[in-house]
Specification:
75 residues, five-stranded mixed β-sheet, alpha+beta, Conserved Hypothetical Protein Mth637, Chain: A
């Protein structure tokens, strides 16, 4: 069964790759890649899949391709 999660992305961060969980449960993903030509989105998919322990093919960007808050379908 697929699950949809929302994450906040911090592209171009020297802290990346890193996943932080806020007090409200919101995931914030820091990646080193800049938001150019979809490189940050690809990096977020890689980091999120590793964090959740699922294959990259199970992580699909469903909304927010150009926004800092993105939704992903897992599964």
């Amino acid at each position: 069964m697929a699950e949809v999660i929302s994450v906040r992305v911090k592209p171009g961060s020297s802290n990346g790759p890193l996943v932080e969980i806020g007090p409200d449960g919101q995931l914030t993903i820091f990646v080193r890649e800049r938001a150019v030509d979809g490189k940050a989105n690809d990096a977020v998919v890689r980091v999120l899949a590793e964090h959740l322990g699922v294959p990259r093919s199970h992580v699909k960007l469903t909304a927010g391709a150009t926004a800092r808050v993105k939704r992903f379908r897992i599964g």
